[in-house]
């Protein structure tokens, strides 16, 4: 896909990007790679938080269930841009205060790492509900049969729960991945050098706003189409042996 994007920058109207010294097209590609890195990292962090949150809501004690409910309620209620501003600035301030309390000097958090953390926290709340719903969609007879065979909880999770929940979880998780790729653009407000921020900087320097933002839009579209093709294959693999559903894998 990178080669295709490079060709996009080297031909036609978008070739103007490569003519701007020292090559604005390479800056956009660097921003694109940062956006993908942030989206992948945020998705992984969100999945980890989602697994913990779903487990707390379904199998945890009263305190764990209440904490998970508060987490998902707050994150899903507050606009994502507000959460990004709170977590990005307040999180860095709290970290430096904690370091100071232990006698360490303050530190600057890399923009990519901060972006992964911020979007990961947001993704975690939605992943919690997606995974919780997928687990609840598993026919309870399968779980009861596994218990009747004497399977341990960990074995039930590995042999029954995870394989059975995948077909129900993949559509929701795929949607969260696509949202994560677009939410990286919100990090431009705090100066993270992802695709939108780099595009805005290049467009402001050259005044070629239409060209640069159309190029950025084309890159986001290419990423979405590529992701959709991969997700479709994964969904068809997860649903193998199951009755076909109209539109599945699209």
UniProtKB/TrEMBL annotation:
PROSITE patterns: ABC_TM1. The lineage of its organism: Bacteria, Pseudomonadati, Pseudomonadota, Alphaproteobacteria, Hyphomicrobiales. Belongs to the binding-protein-dependent transport system permease family. HisMQ subfamily. It comes from the Bacteria. It is found in: Cell inner membrane; Cell membrane. This is ABC transporter permease. It comes from Ollibium composti. The chain crosses the membrane at residues 28-56, 68-89, 109-126, 160-180, 208-232. InterPro entries: AA_ABC_transptr_permease_3TM, ABC_transp_permease_HisMQ, MetI-like, MetI-like_sf. Keywords: Cell inner membrane, Cell membrane, Membrane, Transmembrane, Transmembrane helix, Transport. It holds the Pfam family BPD_transp_1. Residues 32-231 form the ABC transmembrane type-1 domain. It is a multi-pass membrane protein. The keyword Lyase does not apply.
């Amino acid at each position: 896909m990178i080669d295709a994007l490079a060709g996009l920058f080297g031909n036609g109207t978008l070739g103007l990007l490569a003519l701007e010294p020292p090559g604005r097209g390479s800056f956009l590609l660097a921003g694109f790679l940062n956006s993908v890195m942030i989206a992948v990292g945020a998705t992984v962090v969100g999945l980890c938080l989602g697994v913990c949150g779903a487990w707390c809501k379904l199998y945890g004690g009263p305190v764990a269930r209440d904490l998970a409910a508060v987490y998902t309620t707050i994150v899903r209620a507050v606009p994502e841009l507000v959460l990004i501003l709170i977590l990005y600035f307040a999180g860095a301030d709290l970290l430096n205060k904690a370091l100071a309390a232990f006698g360490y000097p303050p530190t600057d958090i890399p923009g990519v790492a901060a972006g992964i953390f911020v979007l990961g926290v947001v993704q975690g709340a939605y992943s919690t509900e997606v995974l919780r719903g997928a687990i609840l969609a598993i026919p309870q007879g399968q779980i009861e049969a596994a218990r009747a065979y004497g399977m341990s909880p960990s074995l039930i999770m590995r042999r029954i729960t995870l394989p059975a929940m995948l077909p129900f979880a993949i559509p929701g998780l795929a949607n969260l991945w696509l949202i994560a790729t677009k939410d990286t653009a919100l990090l431009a407000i705090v100066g993270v050098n992802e695709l939108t921020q780099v595009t805005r900087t290049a467009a402001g320097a050259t005044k070629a706003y239409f060209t640069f933002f159309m190029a950025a839009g084309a890159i986001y579209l290419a990423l979405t189409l590529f992701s959709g093709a991969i997700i479709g294959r994964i969904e068809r693999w997860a649903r193998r042996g199951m009755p076909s559903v109209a539109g599945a894998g699209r």
